[in-house]
Amino acid sequence: MNLILISSIAAVFMMIAATFIRLKASARPVSPKKIILPPFFMSTGALMYVVPMFRLTSTEILEAVVVGLIFSVFLIKTSKFEVRDQQIYLKRSKAFVFILIGLLIARIAFKTYLSQTISFGELSGMFFLLAFSMIVSWRIAMYRSYKKLAATLKDDYYDKNMKLT
Fold this sequence. Notes:
mainly alpha
C-alpha cells in the first residue's frame, strides 16, 4: 500500500506541474511541434514493459486504452485555439484545472480500489497505458484542430493580401 500512496503523491505533483505548464503555454504561440512532441517524449516510458512485472494481459490493455480514450474527451473539449496577431494560441480554459483535478481523483480512487486485486507492477503498466492513450488521442485532436485553424488563417491572409493584375 505504501507504493500506491507514493505514486499517488507523485501524481499530485505531476498534476500541479501540468497545470503550470498549460498556463504558461497559453502565453506563447502554438506550433505543430509543440503539439506532437509530448507523446513522443512520453513514449519512452513504454520501456517499462521490458520488465516482466509491468506486462499486461490483452484484457488489461484494452481496459486501459478504453478508459484513456474516455478520459481524453474531457481534455479535448477544453482545448481550443484562438488567433491573436496572426498567430495561433491555446485558449485558457477555467475548466481545464478542474478536469485535471477530477482525473487525478478518479485515478487515485481507481488505483486504491484496483490495488486490492491487481499487482503494483501491472497496475503501473495499466495507468501508464491509460495516460498514454489519453494524451495521444488528445494531441491528435489538438493537431487536427490546429491544422484547420492554420488553414483558415492562411486562406484569410491570402484573401487580404492578394492583388489582382
